[in-house]
Amino acid sequence: DLRGANFEGRRLRDTSFINCKFAGVRGKPEIQGNYTVERADFSPAGDGSDVRGADAVHAIWGAPK
User: Are 24 and 46 in contact (CB under 8 A)?
Assistant: First the structure.
């Protein structure tokens, strides 16, 4: 459950986010390598009512290298 997490300055390298709750995630991590996202849930309640693909996370953080 990553709801409300601040990723500012966190390093991502070879990281997978699968079925994670992403509502309210903020900040841009330092992308040092690939990361994958599958079935990111952006619903505030974390109930799966707003599941999106990797493009939604890439729009916030930038595409992986």
Answer: no
The 10s digit of each residue's pLDDT in 30-61 is 999 889 999 999 999 999 999 999 999 988 89
Burial of 6 (0-12, 13-18, 19+ CB in 10 A): exposed
Q: In this structure, what are the phi and psi dihedrals at residue 23, rounded to the nearest 5 degrees?
A: -55, 130
Strand partners, 30: 11
User: Residues 26, 6: contact at Cβ < 8 Å?
Assistant: yes
* pTM listed for this prediction: 0.85
Q: What CA–CA distance (Å, rounded) separates 23 from 1?
A: 9
